[in-house]
Amino acid sequence: MRKAVLASAMGNCVEWFDFGVFSAGVITAIVGTVFFPPEEGGNATLRSFALIAAAFLARPFGSLFFGPLGDRIGRKKVLSTTIIMMSASTFVIGVLPGYGTIGIAAPLTLLAVRLIQGFSTGGEYGGAATMIAEYAPTDRRGFYGAFLELGTLSGYVLGAGLVLGMHVGLGEEQMNAWGWRIPFLVALPLGLVGLYLRTRIADTPEFERLEQAGAKAKAPLRETILRNWPMMFKLICIVFLLNIADYTLLTFMPSYLIDFLHLADVSSQLTTIGVELAMIAVILPLGALSDRIGRKPLLISAAVGYLVLSWPAFAAIQTDSVLGVAAGYAVVGGLLVLMLAVVGSTFPAMFPTKVRYGAFAIGYNISTSVFGGTTAVLVGSLIEKTGNNYVPAYYLMLAAAVAIVPLLLIPETARVPIDKVGTENAPELVGSGARSS
Q1: Domain holding 68: CATH number?
Q2: Phi and psi of 88, rounded to 5°?
Q3: Range of the domain at 21
Q4: What is the pTM of this model?
C-alpha cells in the first residue's frame, strides 16, 4: 500500500513540479522572452500562458490512448511510460536553444515538446488515482487518495521554491542568462525516481482479479464511451470547477499578483508557497475526514464556497495590505483543498473497474483541456481587455454554479468497496453515504 501510494503520488509531483517552475512569475516572463521573437508591446507572460494552453490540447488524445490501454494491459505498465515521458519533456525545455539562436524553430520546438508532455500527462492522473483507489482499503480510501494531491502540492512547492531560491541567490541578470534552465533540468532525476518506484510494485489487486477472471473489457474505449457517458459528463462538469480553481491558484495567481496587482516577484512567490504549505498541512486530515462523513459534503461545501466567497476573496487580494492579499489567497486555497482532498477517492469510484482508467482519464482530460489549460490565458486576456481585476472571481463563480448540480447527483461511495462502485451491484446511497454501507 505504501509503495503504491508513493509511486502514484510521485507522478503528480513530477507533473506539478513542471507547473510550479513554468508558472513562477519570473520563469513565465523569461520563457516568453527567450523563445519568441521580440514584439513591441507584446506580453511575454501571456505568450507563456498560451504555450501552457496549447499543451493541454494534447491531453484528451493522451487519455484516449493511455486510458483504455491501462484497462487492457494494466495500470503499472502505462504509468511507468507516462512518468518518464513527462519528466523527459520538462528536461528538454531546459536545454532548448532560444529564438536568438535558432529563430522561429525555437517556439515551434518548444510547442512540440509541450504537446508531447501534454499527451503523456493525459494518461497520468487517471491512472495514478485509479492505482491508489484500487489498492486502498475501503474504509481508508479517502485518506490514501489524498496523497495523490499531496503529490500535486508538494511538486508545485518544490518547483516554485526552487525558482524562488535561485532567483534570490543568482539575481535577475544570471537568472535571465542561464539560471532559469536549472529547474527544468531537475525534472529528469525526479522522473527516474518515480519510474524506479513504479517498476517495483505489482499491478493493482482489482486489475489482477479481472485479468485472472477473464473479465477485462474486450473493447475498453467503446464500452467506456457507450455505457459510461452520462457519468463522464457529470465528471466533466465537476472537473470544470476543480480545474478553474486549481489553475487559477497554481498557474495564474503568481503572475496575476505581479503583472496586474504589481506585487514584487519575491512577495508573490512567498505568498503562493505559503498558501500551498498550509494546504499540504490539512489535506491528509481532510481526506481522513471524508472516510467518516463522505466525499460529497466536502465537495459541495467547496462549490457553494466558491459561488459565495470568490468575489470577497479577490476584493481582499486587491487591497494594498499584505494581510488582505494573504487572506483572500487563503480563501481560494482553502476551498480548493476541500476538493483536492477527496478527488483522488471520488473520481475513480464513479466508474466500474474494467473501464475505470479510461473513463476517468478521458472525462477528466477533456474538461482539463477545454477549461483548465485555458484558464490563465483566457483570464489574463480578459483582464487586459476589460481592465477588470475581478475576472478570476467571476470565472470561479460560473464554474461553481455549473458543478453544484452534478455534485448533488453523483452517488456517495465513501464506504462502498471499489469493486462494487459504478456497477449495478453498487448501492445508491443518499445524503452522506458514510453513514450507510
Answers
A1: 1.20.1250.20
A2: -65, -35
A3: 2-435
A4: 0.85
